[in-house]
Design brief:
Two copies of one chain form a homodimer. By secondary structure, the first copy, chain A, is α/β, with parallel strands linked by helices. Chain A has 16 helices and 13 strands. In chain A, the strands form four sheets. A four-stranded mixed β-sheet of chain A has the order 1-4-5-13, with helices on both faces. In chain A, strands 6-9-11-7 form a four-stranded antiparallel β-sheet, sandwiched between helices. The longest helix of chain A is centred in the middle third of the chain and has 17 residues.
C-alpha cells in the first residue's frame, strides 16, 4: 500500500485547510500533503499551523489522516536507504519512562543476534530520560552523526544510535517545536505521526514499540496506552513497516538506576548478564519481538534462548564496546565504569519504618532527578550526567527502620530537606506479606486485520 | 460594575493559558488580562495566540470571559474621553449587510437631533460593504483622523466617522488580523469582544446594535443572530455602556443601491427625505432607539416624529454637509451628486419573464459587487468607488418580460455573461399575488435582568 498514489493536488488555501479540520472534516491525503508542503515553504505560517494543530487536538484525526500526516512528515526530508546493510533492519521505540535505558543494551544485543539496528533517538524532556543524553555520559560519544557516518557504523557494527538530523523528517522537528509551546503535545494522532516519521526515516524493515503505562509514563492508564499502541502499530504497518507493540508497566522505575551515567553503568551490567531482573527480562522480551519481526527466530522461546546466550557469553557486551568505539566514545568504560562521570557527593536515604517496599513512585523520582540536574524542563537546558538515583531497596524488599532505600548522586545542585522527604515518600512501605511481583508486560498489540 | 476590580496577577504561562482553554476551563479576568498583555508585549507569540483562539473557537467563552476579554482589549490602548463634548454620546453599529449605508444618514441625523455621534467604523470585507469605503467615495473625505481631530469634529459638528487608529484597541487590531488568517473569525464571543472593544473605546454613553439576519448577513438564522445580539447588549451594558439591539432582515439588500459612490448618493436621498422606503424606515427605527437611549425622547412615537421632521426640513442633510466639510470632503456633492465618481459604463439587465419580484438575493449581489471591484476579499485590496448596482425592480414590483431589473455600474472590470446571468438569477420572479412586504425589524433585544 502506498499513500503516495492517493495524493492529488488540492486547491484549499491555508485558511480553508484550518477551517476544514475546525469543522470536523476529514482531510484527504492531498490536503495533508498541502498542509506540510505549505508549512515547509512558508506559505502556511507558524500561527496557521498552530491553529490547525489545536483544531486537530480538539477534533482528532482519522486513521487515514494519521497515516497521511505520518507519510507527508516522513517524506519532508531524506529517507535513509542504508544500501550497504544486508541484515533485516529492526528498531525499537519506547514512549518514555523513568529508568528506561533499554535502547542501550538492546541495540548491540540485537546486532549480535543478526539484525541491523539503525536507531534514531531523542533527548529527555520533563520527567522522562532520553537515550541520547545517556549515551553522551560516555566520554567522547558522538550522537550527532551524518547520514553517511550513521550508515557506515550500522554496516560495520550492526547498530548505531544517533539524534534526528535536520535532513530527517524536518517537518516533524518544526511541528514538534510548535506543539511544545502551543499546548498541543498531548494529542495521540500527532504523537503517532511524530514518532513514526522519525523512526521510519531510517528505512526500517520492522519496528517494535514499547508503550509505557502508569504513573511515570506519558499514558497513565491502560486504555489510552493501548489506543496509542494500536495507532502506532497500524499506521506503521499501513505505511509498509511491520510493527508490534508491548504495553509495559511504568508505575515503578525500570531497573535500579535513574540518571544518565548511572544508567550507562546499568546497561553494561545488563549486557554482562549481571543486571537487575526486571530490566534484563524486558530487554529479552523486546529483543525477542524484534527477532521474530526480523525473521531471525520462529518462536518466542527460541528467540529468548538465543538472546539469553548472547548475554551469557559476553558477545553482546563486546558489540556494545564496538558501537561506543565507532561513535567516538571511550570503549574502556565497558571494563572500567568508573571512567564515567561521577557524583561529587552521594547521600543515602534510609527507611523511617520497617516493612516491605510495595511501590516506588516513578513520577516522583523522574521529577526529582530533573530538579537535581539529571534532566531538563526545556529542550535547550543542559543536563548533568553525574546526577541520579540508585535504588537500594527495589519493590519486594523487606526493610527495617534505618535500612537504606536510595543513594542520591549529586552534581552542582544540593538536595534540599524537602526533596529528601519527597524522595523517601516515593517508597511505599507496607506492613503486608512479601510483595507479589507486578507484571512487566501488560499487553501485546499486533496490527488490526482491517485493511 | 468594573471588571478591573477583579483583576489579579496570574502565574499561568502562555502554554498553561492555552491548555486551560483547550481543556474547557473558564479563565479568570486576570488570566484574560495576562493573555492580552502577554500578546502585546511579545511574551505570548502569534502562534500561541492563534492556538488559544482556535481553542476558544471550539470551546467557547463564558459571559464572564467575554466581558473580561472585551475589557482587556478595550484597555489595550487609549480610550477617547471627548471632554469637550457635552451631548450624550450614542453610536450605532451594524454587523454588516449588503446595501447597508445607514451609518451615513444616521450620524448627521442624530447629531441634528441633539446627540453626539463619535463613530468608529470599519471597511468592507467579503460580500459586505464598509462605511469607511463609502465615505471615501466622496472626493477628499478623510477617515484617518487623529484622536484630537476626531474630538474637534464631534465637538463642532456633533458627529464624525473615522477608522480604528493604532491607538484605539490595538489588541483588537492585531487579534483580528490573526483571526482572519487562522479560521477563527466566525466565533461569537470573539466577534463580541472585537466589535465592542473598538466601539467602547470612543467613550460612549450608549450603543445601538443593528444585528443583521439572513442570506446576505453574517448570521444566517434568527437564533444565532439573537444570541449574538444578546451577547453584545449584555457585555456592553455590563461594562458600563447601556446598549440595545435590533434584529433586522438581510435576505434582500437594504435600499436600492449596492456600491460605494451609489450608496453615498442614496444616503443624500435619505437625508433629503427622498430615499427608498425600507432604508428610510430603518434609519428612523435605529435613530429612535438612539434617541431613547440618549434620553432625548421619552417614547418611540415621539422620537420617530422628531427625526422625521429633521429629514423633512432639510436640517439633517445640512448637518451631513458640515460633517463632510469638517473631514476634508467636497461638500458640493450634497447638491451635485454627479461630482461623485461615476461608472465608465452602465448596463441594464432585463427580466426574461413577467411576474412579481419576490426576493433579491443579497449574498449574490454582495459577491458579484466584490468581483466587479466594489469590495475586497483581502484587507489590503483596493476598492473601486464607481462600481455597483442600482436595483430598478425592488421586491414587490410587477415586471413584464424585458422590463429593467438592475443597472450595473462598471469600472475596470467587465461584466461576464456568467456574472450577468447570476445577477439576473438573483431576482426571484414569482407568478403570485403582489408581494407582501417582509418585516424590516424582526426583533428587539434589551439587557438581561441577570446581573
Amino acid at each position: 500500500m502506498s499513500t503516495s498514489k492517493t495524493l492529488s493536488p488540492t486547491r484549499l488555501s491555508p485558511v480553508e485547510l484550518i477551517g476544514k479540520k475546525r469543522d470536523d472534516g476529514e482531510h484527504t491525503p492531498g490536503e495533508i500533503q498541502a498542509l506540510i508542503d505549505g508549512f515547509l515553504s512558508g506559505e502556511l505560517a507558524d500561527y496557521q499551523m498552530s491553529a490547525w494543530l489545536m483544531a486537530a487536538y480538539l477534533r482528532g484525526l482519522s486513521a487515514q489522516e494519521m497515516r497521511a500526516l505520518t507519510f507527508s512528515m516522513l517524506h519532508s526530508g531524506k529517507r535513509l536507504t542504508l544500501g550497504k546493510v544486508r541484515a533485516p533492519k529492526v528498531d525499537k521505540h519506547s514512549t518514555g519512562g523513568v529508568g528506561d535505558k533499554l535502547s542501550l543494551p538492546l541495540a548491540p544485543l540485537m546486532a549480535e543476534a543478526g539484525l541491523a539496528v539503525p536507531m534514531i533517538s531523542g533527548r529527555g524532556l520533563g520527567h522522562t530520560g532520553g537515550t541520547l543524553d545517556k549515551l553522551e555520559a560516555i566520554p567522547g560519544f558522538r550522537v550527532g552523526l551524518s547520514g553517511a557516518e550513521f550508515e557506515r557504523v550500522v554496516a560495520r557494527v550492526g547498530c548505531a544510535i544517533m539524534g534526528q538530523t535536520s535532513e530527517l523528517a524536518p517537518a516533524d522537528k518544526r511541528i514538534y517545536a510548535l506543539r511544545d509551546v502551543t499546548g498541543t503535545v498531548a494529542c495521540r494522532p500527532l504523537i503517532v505521526a511524530s514518532i513514526l516519521s522519525k523512526k521510519l526515516a531510517a528505512g526500517l524493515d520492522g519496528l517494535i514499540l514499547d508503550v509505557k503505562v502508569g504513573r511515570g509514563a506519558f499514558m497513565k492508564d491502560y486504555a489510552s496506552a493501548k489506543a496509542l499502541a494500536s495507532d502506532l502499530v497500524n499506521t506503521a504497518t499501513a505505511l509498509g513497516t511491520p510493527a508490534r507493540a508491548l504495553l509495559t508497566q511504568m508505575d515503578t522505575p525500570l531497573g535500579r538506576t535513574v540518571g544518565n551515567a548511572l544508567e550507562v553503568r546499568e546497561s553494561i551490567e545488563i549486557l554482562s548478564n549481571l543486571g537487575p531482573e526486571d530490566a534484563t527480562l524486558l530487554t529479552l522480551e523486546l529483543g525477542a519481538e524484534m527477532l521474530l519481526l526480523g525473521g531471525l527466530a520462529k518462536t518466542r522461546p527460541e528467540a529468548l534462548r538465543k538472546l539469553r546466550l548472547l548475554l551469557e557469553n559476553g558477545t553482546a557486551l563486546e558489540r556494545f564496546r564496538k558501537m561506543i568505539e565507532a561513535q567516538g566514545g571511550d570503549p574502556r568504560v565497558i571494563d572500567s565504569p568508573n571512567l564515567l562521570p561521577r557524583a561529587t557527593k552521594t547521600i543515602v536515604l534510609e527507611a523511617k519504618k520497617g516493612g516491605t517496599v510495595s511501590a516506588i513512585d516513578a513520577l516522583a523520582l523522574g521529577e526529582l532527578s530533573v530538579q537535581l540536574g539529571a534532566g531538563r524542563l526545556r529542550a535547550q537546558d543542559p543536563v548533568d550526567p553525574r546526577v541520579g538515583f540508585e535504588i537500594l531497596a527495589p519493590t519486594g524488599t523487606s526493610v527495617g527502620r534505618g535500612d537504606p532505600l536510595v543513594r542520591v548522586h549529586l552534581g552542582k545542585v544540593r538536595l534540599s530537606d524537602d526533596q529528601a522527604e519527597r524522595l523517601r515518600a516515593a517508597f511505599s512501605i507496607g506492613r503486608g506479606e512479601s510483595h507479589l511481583k507486578s507484571e512487566l508486560v501488560l499487553g501485546r498489540v499486533s496490527p488490526s486485520k482491517a485493511k
